[in-house]
Structures are given as structure tokens and as C-alpha cells.
Amino acid sequence: MDQPTSPQYTASELMCVNAARLLRDGDVVFVGVGLPNLACNLARRTHAPNLQMIYEAGVIGARPSKLPLSIGDPTLVSGASSVCGMYDIFTLYLQRGNVDVGFLGGAQIDRFGNINATVIGDYAHPKVRLPGSGGSQEMGGWANRNYIITPHQKRRFPEKVDYITSAGFLGGRKQREATGVRGGGPLVVVTNLGLLEPDENGELMLTALHPGCTVEQVKDNTGWDIKIASTVKETLPLKSSELTLLREELDPEGIYLKGS
Amino acid sequence: MDQPTSPQYTASELMCVNAARLLRDGDVVFVGVGLPNLACNLARRTHAPNLQMIYEAGVIGARPSKLPLSIGDPTLVSGASSVCGMYDIFTLYLQRGNVDVGFLGGAQIDRFGNINATVIGDYAHPKVRLPGSGGSQEMGGWANRNYIITPHQKRRFPEKVDYITSAGFLGGRKQREATGVRGGGPLVVVTNLGLLEPDENGELMLTALHPGCTVEQVKDNTGWDIKIASTVKETLPLKSSELTLLREELDPEGIYLKGS
Amino acid sequence: MSKLCSLKEAISNYVHDGDTVYCAGFTHLIPFAAGHEIIRQGRRDLTLARATPDLIYDQMVAAGCAKKLIFSYIGNPGVGSLRIVREQLESGQLAWEEYSHFGMIARLQAGAAGLPFASMNQTAAPDLEKNNPNYRRVKDPYTGREVVTLPPLTPDVGIIHVQRADAKGNAHIWGIIGEQKEVAFASKNVIITAEEIVDEDIIRSDPNRTLIPELIVKAVCLVPHCSHPSYTQGYSDRDNSFYLNWDKISEDPAAVKAWLDEWVYGVKDAEEYWQKLGAETHKRLAVKPKFAAPVNYGDY
Amino acid sequence: MSKLCSLKEAISNYVHDGDTVYCAGFTHLIPFAAGHEIIRQGRRDLTLARATPDLIYDQMVAAGCAKKLIFSYIGNPGVGSLRIVREQLESGQLAWEEYSHFGMIARLQAGAAGLPFASMNQTAAPDLEKNNPNYRRVKDPYTGREVVTLPPLTPDVGIIHVQRADAKGNAHIWGIIGEQKEVAFASKNVIITAEEIVDEDIIRSDPNRTLIPELIVKAVCLVPHCSHPSYTQGYSDRDNSFYLNWDKISEDPAAVKAWLDEWVYGVKDAEEYWQKLGAETHKRLAVKPKFAAPVNYGDY
């Protein structure tokens, strides 16, 4: 992978901090393990102390004392405000509209923000069988806002995904709206190069670059001829306080932040 | 009301003991307050120690230490094996088929065992507004067996009820079956005169008399020309041990057993 | 962010004329004090929804707060008729919508779950469906058999009494839990009244006990004894003699008016009402403690 | 009536070749020991259903127990791919039926509730519906909009690990409760494995904690540490290093066979498996106690 980040931080750290900044204080967030979990904890320790973290296993208001390896670790339960069954999580919380933000990832993200986490190749005769939906089909449909975190690579950004696990804007914003689905769809894709946001038609467009990254890098690492916003902003540099929090308190062993 | 019972026991005691005898050890019973509650407790203390009592409020395996006034008294919870919400009671227990027996009562019971607990007169312009279904519509439909306990009076046994709150056999057994409903419908009506059971067409028929009661009394107190079984049995006399249990332990203040 | 306020403020802010209000609790935890506060504040044209209207709605109907009732069983539980509600239904003064308990709870569950309709198997009893156009049917797409449906119920306000809550609204409930969770998630605004406001560490020590999470709660009010003459498991007994007594009071409109004047309009709040009940009643309704077996969550 | 028996007897009596089996538990309380016993007894042609197959089904599939998988997420939670399951799906050796988590849980809920179908709002994602004919649609009779449906899932056997149960099968569960209740009520036969068998007074001191009632339980087995390498809240920690380790073992069929030979076929039961793990592992997975705040039910 093309490595655009400066030696002061890894690509994962860059994505994590930029994802954290998208969260608003008081947001109710449906959290997955890994980077989303780190981003939420970072936001909670900085500008969003009232963030509510929900895990699909049925945990509300978790306060993990250490970094959980799995999405159902016991440390998520100890000190949580509420625990309920998965049926309740998907109905009372997600389907009812009580979730503001869902974080999504996947093997492929396409031009209209559709996500594939299910299969490469033909569904019935898979070339690569991926994990499948888990909770992400409903998250993509029903969270008020979705954020996608993914490294910027050509194979991860094909023009059209092989299979739609979570809906972005399908073939365009109007197609999604026609289904009557409640959530607003993907709002931002955070990559290690910058931020992509849907245009009025739901097509992903480069709207911001991280410091030191270029439009060329984005074009080279995207599988279609990506639109560039008329004004491409630059994201704020990572603060040393953010990096310190991440490295020393949230992921001291570097399980998710090390490497690229 | 015509008073057929001997001075040794009240009509309520007679109905209660005969209702208790209908229960089988291990039955799961959906219990209402009053006589059904007493009948269940009597059965549990005599021939059915493994009876499971369920209350619509969401209580499973209750062991009330005193006679509850209402169907949601705290004594039902203390020492119960499980408490759940009402949605669970009506789905996981009743609709799923986990309830063997439901006890029903009402202002009117008709020729085919249909029960009215809702209204006398026109529904939209009620002459007498009764409590309504509560849990009895579903109990009548979904319990494997239903037992009805009611004093034998002409106004309580009209040929046709004004309103069907709980289904007996509608206009005949085939009509009930045609709805595809899961429960078997009323199996026995226990009155202070004897026992009524549905015939092959679902029409209630006198099948047993309590000691000292007569076919004439039953005919006089029924609102239609009631069928009499070819052999009318006599119910076993109340045992003094049953009466002692009822009077001294289960309803010592005579809240439900006193009077008629 | 604390949501603590007085019950007076909570009712004033979140209950408006014309609202659909659901005071939750099946026999247990009925928030009488909230009903009384609604009466004191003179709310009108409310649609009152409850599986069992119980005495709280008999009192609110008597005080002229309601234009319509949504219910599944009208009675004075364990005693008999609910006289005032019954009279107003018979005389046509009060509009109504009727369900079975399951229908009522299923509507709430659909509302809580964000579903457009609730599904129920047929019961073979035809007359509720015949008289209430909200009952409809859909074909099961697998067997072709018909299933009965009802639309979701999403009250404007849900009022829920709990044993203990933290200042943000995370609430522990035990004992009979009827429809509290469904009402909370179905309602647009949730008011919690609590016997005790506790530190959030107490709540978080037992998250499986939290039936209602802060994120759906608008106001949290400390209202001990809010449920009298109903009860709060572990905190008070049911005042059965009041239920028997109301059967007599409610026979006579003058007696009802006198009771409302003395016990609702004549007191400032739930605390004054409770004090007015007196030491003998307090003693009669007191409950000896009996604790649940310890539960070890582990220190992870 | 006691339902106590050994896990060996329970599996022998209630799990048959060709059955649909649901080993419950989302990350938490996964009944590994029951899966191992099924392997030891050589069951074949099972349909294995689980939201997340986890390592337990990877092992059962490796041992040749399964002909089909019903799932909603195949991964080694927190680690990556579930290699054996994945290979068999890619090579067409294993049949499958796929859902989202919500679809899976909704099917169980419909099975538990005795409903002919589960209803869900549309998600706008088309491909699961397109590839699985169990997904259908009905029109909401109120708005005319389409709702997605699934048929109920009613496994032949549900296996559920719990913290404590009485001999009749009333079971307390705390911590993550994923789909345990739904599996129990949906299944035709329920096997409970418990860390502790306790006197029924312990269970009855806290009835709100009872997720599973005796009346739906067929067998109760005392199986401490049944959930290793998953965990039991309050009793043990998750053995994350085993999950990481399996990622390597499962790369190599010979290593998998050797592991099964040593840890499943080579031990008599869960107790021997646990002892074999050794004192260091026991110590590593031990958890310091931390208790829930007391709850007063009152002495009524």
C-alpha cells in the first residue's frame, strides 16, 4: 500500500483520530471492535464525554477498563449502564431510531458507499468467503448517520461491489430513499488519505485530504474516476494529546494502532 | 339463586374442590385470582405437587405465602421461580403452547361454551359494561385445555352470548377448528350443580351432578334446552381434608369461599 | 448530564393537553403521584392508555382530565368494578379503544421496536376484531394462514415508577415488570419517578437489572411512595384496604369530589400526601427486608 | 422433579444425527464442553445454527459433525477468519443458510413466541433477500409499505450454559445474554449446563434474574468451565490467547486433527479437559469477585 502518513503516526492512528472527530457529544454510537471502538473512546475522553456506546451483543453505556479483543468481552459488561438481549438491541435501539451513529467497514466500498462484507466473487460459489453481515446490514439501514473507516486501496474501492451487505446509496441517493429506509446512509468515509463524502446524488467525492496527502494519491487508489470537491479542505493535524491518549491509555499494546 | 349445596359446604367450596380435581400433576396453569387460584393451590397441596402456576402479570411458579387480593400482589413474586414481562407471558408461554390449562369465568357462558366478559347489550352503547378480556381472549384460544368455573344461573347461561370475549366452540366444534386456533377449547364447565362437557359438536352437555343435585335443577337454571348425557355421573363427595385445607390454610378469612 | 427535577416540573414540561399518556405498571409500581400531579395541573383532553386503568385512571377521569381511554381490562383489581370509568363508558361521556391484554402489550412492543405493526395468532374470538378497526389481518407468507395485526402504540408521554435510578435516568426495576420496558421505548417522552436516586455506580454494578436506559429518558424525579395505594416491591406493601375503600367512595360523586379535594387538590405534592396518610398507614404498609442472593459480575 | 444428569447422558438422549442444534451464547457462555461431547459421541449430519459460529462450530465442522450451517457472521471474534468453516463453505462441502444478526435473532424470537413469521423493517440492502428464499415480504396493512419477513427458527435442541440453575432447570444468567432466552423458548429440547447447581431458594430469591424456567428444560448438567475458551461472567475470563492460537492451529488440517485427538477425543469429559489445561491457565483465567449492589425483594 502507498504509505502517505508521516513517520509521526501510523495510518490507523490517523484514521482513528479523524473518525473520533466526527462524533458529537451525546451521540449514541453502535460500536464495533477495533478502530471504531478506539475512536469512540478517544472522543469520549476529549470532546464528547457524553457519548453513549452500544455493542450489538447487548451492552449499553459500556466503560471497558481495558481494550476488549472481541465484541463480547466481559470488560464491556462490568460497569456498563445496561445489558439486554440482542433482539432488544436490534429492535428497541437500532430499528426504533435510537442509534445516531454506526461505524462500518468491509472488504469493498463502492462509488455510492455500498459495502461488501460478505463475498468476493459469486455468492453461491464464493471465491473468498467473508464474515457476512453480523449487525452491519441493519446498521447501514437504520443508524441516523454512518461512518466508514477503511484504508485507501484500489481493490477496496471498486466501482461496484460484488455484493451489497450494507446499503450505501445503492445506484444513487434516490434509490435509497425509494426503499423508505429510516437511516441517512453513509455521511463520511475516513481513509488514510482523506475524507470522502456523498454528493447530492450519493456519489462519494473527495472533500478533504490529510496533511501531506494529495489528490493524485486518492485517484491512484480509487477504482473509479473519483469526483474531487471544488474546494478540498485539509484535515487538522493530529494533536500530540490525541496520540498520547491513544498510545498510552487506549491501546497501550498497539493491537489496533501498530503497523501501517 | 337456587341453593342446592348441603349446609356442610358452600357452593364456592364445592366448585373449587371440583375444579382442583380436574388438574393433573405437572400441568402448567394460567391462573386468575379468586376460585381458580384457590383450586390450583388446593391441587398443589393434594394430588398435583408439581403444578406450575403462571400469572398474566408475568409471574412463573408462584408460591404465595398468603391469599393475594389482586392478580399482581407482591406475595406472588416473593419465592416465584421466574418473573418476566407481559409480552413474554403472552408470547413465550401462552402463544407458544407452553400453557396446559386456562381457567375462565365471565358474565355469560353459552350453549357452545363461548364466554362474554365484555358487555351486556350493544357493544357501542353498553347496557352493562363489564371488565373486558384482560388475558382471557388469548387464554380461551391458546391454552391446551380450558376450564370454566361459574355458578349455575339462567342469566349466566343464555343460549347465545351478547359478545364473544373468549372463544368456546363458536357455532360448533368445526367452526372453532376452521379458525386454525391452537388450543382445544373448553373441556369442562364446573358449576355448583355439576359438570358440563362439550359433546362431539362442541355443545355443552350435563355429564355429572354433585351429590344431592338433580337434572331438574340444571334444566331450570340453564337458558337453553340443555342436553343430558346418557349416563350422568355423580361427583365424589368433598373430603373433609380438602375442606380443612381450603378453610384453614388457603382462605382462612373466607374471602372467596364464604357466602353462597 | 443530570435530568433531576421535581415531579411538578416534569409534568409541566412534558404532559400537555390532548396528549396520549401511559402511566405504566401492571398492579405494581403504578405512578399514582404522577396522576395526582396531572390532576392538580388541570390537564384536559388526555387520551389515557393503560392495560388496566386501575384506580389511577378512575381518579383522573373523575377529575375531568380525559377524553378517551385505551385499555384491555377495566376493573378495580381484586375488588370488582371500576365505577367512574364504567359509568362514563356506559353513558358515552368517555370515548374508548379496547384490546385484549396481549393486543395492548403487542401494540406497545411494536411501538418500542419501531415496527409498523404487531402480529398475533388468531384466538378464534371474533368480537374485538369486529368492533375495533385497528385490528386487521395479513397473510403469513409461508403458510398462507391469516395473522391478526395491530398498529404500534407510541404514547406522547410514558410515566414509569422504579425502585432506583441514577440522575441520568438509568433505572433498576424488579418484581412484576408488566409493560414498563415497552412503554419506555414506545413513548416519545419518558418521565421516571424513583423511590431512590442512587449513584450511577449502584446501577452499573448490575447492568442486567437496568430495564430503562438513560438515552430514552427526559426527566428523573425523586418521588418516594409514588405508587401508593399500589406498591413498590421491597419498599412497600399494596394498600388493599384503600382499593376496597375506593369501591365505596366511587359509588358517590360527592364522596369522590371530597376525596379529590382532600387528597389531591388539598396537598402540595406526593410527600405531603404520604405524610397525611399517617404513621399507622406507614406502619401497615412497611415491609421487612428480604434480599436477593448475591451476584458476582467479576472484576474484569 | 430433578432433571440432573451427566452431559454425556444429556447429549446421548437429546442430540440425534440430523438434528438442528443451537449452542447458544454471543461470545459469552458458549457451551464448548457440549460441542466437544457431541464430537466424542460422533454425531453426524447436524445442522448447526448460531449467529456467530465461533470456534465451537469450527471444531464441530472439522470433526465432521455438520452437513449445514445457519449463521449471520462467520469469524473468529476479535481475531479474524474462521478458517475451517470458511474453507468448507468456499469448497461447497458445507451447505449454508445466511442471515444478518437481526434476521437470525428475529427468526429465533418468532420461534420462541409461537409466531408464523418474524417482521423487520427494510434495510435497503438487497442481496441477502435475493440469495435466501426464506426472506419474503408482506404489506403493512396500515401504510401499505412492505415489511421483510422470515420464518421462525425452532431448533431440535438448544444448549445453554448458565451461571447457576436449580435441579429442575430454573436458571440465572447475567452478563451478555445475546440470544439465550430466545433459543431456549424456540427449541424443542433444552439442555442446561451450569457452573453451579444451587438450591431452588437461591433462584427464587431473585426471580427477575431467571431467564429460563424449568418448564421448558429437559436436562440439567453440572459442567463447571463448560464455556472455555469463551467465558462465564463472574466465573472466568475469556481465554483470548486460545482464540489467537486457534487461528494458527486451524491453518493446518494435521494440527486440527492433533488438537481434536488431544483435547476432545483424548479426554473423558469437561472436567478432565479443564484439569489438563493446568494450573497456570486456571490462574490466568481466574477473576476477582465484584458483586452487584444488594436488591431487596421484601418479605411479603
Notes on the structure:
The complex is a heterotetramer, with two copies of chain A (260 residues) and two copies of chain C (300 residues). Chain A has 260 residues and is an alpha/beta fold. Chain A has one domain (11-250): 3-Layer(aba) Sandwich (Glutaconate Coenzyme A-transferase). Chain A is built from eight helices and 14 strands. The radius of gyration of chain A is 18 Å and the shape is globular. Chain C is of the alpha/beta class and 300 residues long. Chain C has a single domain, classed as 3-Layer(aba) Sandwich (Glutaconate Coenzyme A-transferase). In chain C, 34% of the residues lie in helices and 19% in strands. Chain C has helices spanning 7-14, 32-40, 54-62, 83-90, 101-113, 127-131, 180-186, 200-204, 240-249, 253-265, 270-285; strands spanning 20-23, 46-49, 66-71, 95-98, 118-120, 136-139, 146-150, 157-165, 171-172, 189-197, 210-212, 219-222. The longest helix of chain C is centred in the last third of the chain and has 16 residues, at 270-285. The relative contact order of chain C is 0.17. The interface between B and D is medium-sized, with 27 and 22 residues.
Provide the β-strand percentage band of chain C. 15-25%
Write down the domain tally of chain A: 1
Roughly what fraction of the amino acids of chain A lie in strands? Answer: 15-25%
In total, how many beta strands of chain C? 12
| CATH architecture call of chain C | 3-Layer(aba) Sandwich
Helix content of chain A: 25-40%
How many helices of chain C? The count is 11
Q: Quick summary of this structure?
A:
The complex is a heterotetramer, with two copies of chain A (260 residues) and two copies of chain C (300 residues). Helix content of chain A is 26%, strand content 22%. By secondary structure, chain A is α/β, with parallel strands linked by helices.
